Amino acid sequence: MASVNVTIIxxxxxxxxxxxxxxxxxxTAVSVYDDDPASVAKRFEEAGARRIHVVDLDAARSxxxxxxxxxxxxxxxxxxxxxxxxVRTDDDVAELVDAGIDRIIVGTLLARDPEQVARWCAGGxxxxxxxxxxxxxxxxxxxxxxxxxIEDIALxxxxxxxxxxxxxxxxxxRDGMLSGPDIERTNxxxxxxxxxxVLSGGISSASxxxxxxxxxxxxxxxxxxxxxxxxxxxxxxxxLEMAEASRPDDEDEVSW
Length: 256
Prior knowledge:
This protein starts with 6 loop residues before the first strand and ends in an 11-residue tail after the last helix. It has a single domain, classed as Aldolase class I (TIM Barrel, Alpha-Beta Barrel). The chain has eleven helices and twelve strands. A hairpin with a 2-residue loop joins strand 1 and strand 2. Helices cover 37% and strands 29% of the residues. The chain is an alpha/beta fold and 256 residues long.
């Protein structure tokens, strides 16, 4: 299998206004890394990041939101910002668009009301990405606190059909564990969806990134790196350089 061309996307998870990481999505296993997420985003950009992955964990479990903080993060960087967590109503979408967010990730609503997401995609006012979070192939929703009977591959195909521009695929069992990415399952999603897919969960080292580049299907276009950055196991600038070396000169890494 030929190497794939990926974008490294640093992750910024927001909970109670702080930059945190969860272990396997558990709100009882929270590590706080910084009280000023906007400054973290700025450091990511200074290291060379052109895209930043943000999750509003409060909004994801319907316990408030960090929209004002998202606006401050937007003002602090020029990078493409993709935001997920709690995007369930027209007002949610409008607030994120007004805040200048470039990509909006829909997860719970995609699983529960795909027709609403289809209407948003058809509206043309924002670029929507499907947030598909799964444990052993079964989609989880509501901040990973509720299970469904929906298979990740089936939801990926539906995301393409309703007009999503890409997929953020998270293997929950790997997330925050620094145990290596689930390349096999992400490849299955990419092959099934025929959309750009971002792998999320499990990245623990530069060698993990290299493995995705070497063994990933062509549809894998990005890698979210979270806990490994905060734990000092991955150097963002070096990871970005590694990914850049795999990308053709004429390819725009943030076009979708």
